[in-house]
Design a protein that fits this description.
Oligomer: single chain
Shape: elongated
Helix content: 25-40%
Distance between the termini: 29 Å
Bound molecules: zinc ion
Strand content: 15-25%
Strand order of the largest sheet: 1-6-7-5
């Protein structure tokens, strides 16, 4: 599943091809995504793309006629190809540009979305307006997270994965960051000291930043017509290693379910 780093790398990969281009046509081959693709996305035909940006795991294509909100869901991928490139299975949408290229959306499981918002979506759209700060901005800092955690009984792992608290800390990154910070994933968020939040926050930022950096170098070219941009493999200390040996203490890693998500931790290194 694409996590924040993959979406950020997708954004950086496609933006230079889209920005300052006019939209010639939108071809929707299958409207049945997570929500039906609304007819009103046609309002951007003829409009100029002013900016492409990421908010949480949404890509927002700002145009002179409104805003497209794109989510990759479980299996979505975007690439920029010549508009006449033959389609393959699950190529559901083409955003055709006057340059002769198109942004092509492929999504086998169809949990992604393409929506339209007339208003700037960050403050107005129901999917975006209640989101917490971006993890790689200054708004997400030790004091903020410590304050937000006071009185919270929920497990720290569930807390940092809550999009109202901070966006984009997916399951892999929550597992890895808590291991590196030495914090037990089930510990109540409200019972963790400020000192430990001061360790955790820079680790979360570094974990995501490193994944973005790796993704930028290992991901396939977004303009390759053949194949999909893949999701990057990373060096993981705990995620997917339940029952294996801890890389720090050689004890055995434990795997539990927390909030229905696989959670791997070291009972000795994480307290
Ligand atoms: Zn250990």
């Amino acid at each position: 599943m694409p996590e924040l780093p993959e979406v950020e790398v997708s954004c950086r990969g496609i933006a230079p091809h889209l920005q300052q281009q006019k939209i010639a046509q939108i071809i929707v081959r299958d409207r049945r995504l997570r929500w039906p693709v609304p007819e009103e996305i046609d309002s951007v035909v003829g409009a100029l793309i002013t900016k492409v940006e990421r908010r949480a795991k949404y890509l927002i294509v700002h145009t002179s006629a409104g805003h497209l909100i794109i989510h990759l869901g479980m299996s979505g991928a975007l690439r920029v190809v010549p508009a006449n490139t033959p389609t393959v299975k699950h190529d559901h949408i083409d955003l055709v540009l006057e340059s002769g290229k198109c942004l092509r959306f492929n999504d086998p499981r169809r949990f992604g979305c393409w929506l339209f918002s007339k208003e700037h979506p960050s403050e107005n759209h129901p999917l975006l307006r209640a989101l917490g700060p971006e993890p790689l901005t200054d708004a997400f800092n030790e004091a903020y997270l410590f304050k937000a955690s006071r009185g919270r009984q929920q497990a720290i792992k569930t807390f940092i994965m809550d999009n109202h608290v901070v966006v984009g800390v997916g399951n892999i990154y929550a597992n890895e960051a808590l291991f590196k910070a030495g914090i037990h994933p089930k510990r109540a968020a409200g019972k963790i000291s400020q000192r430990r939040y001061e360790q955790l926050v820079p680790i979360i930022k570094a974990t995501l930043a490193k994944a973005i950096e790796q993704g930028g170098t290992t991901l396939q070219d977004f303009t390759q017509a053949d194949g999909q941009p893949g999701y990057f493999k990373q060096e993981l200390m705990v995620y997917g290693r339940g029952g294996k040996l801890c890389m720090q203490c050689s004890g055995r890693l434990k795997e539990i379910r927390l909030g229905q998500r696989s959670t791997v931790y070291c009972p000795s290194c994480q307290r």
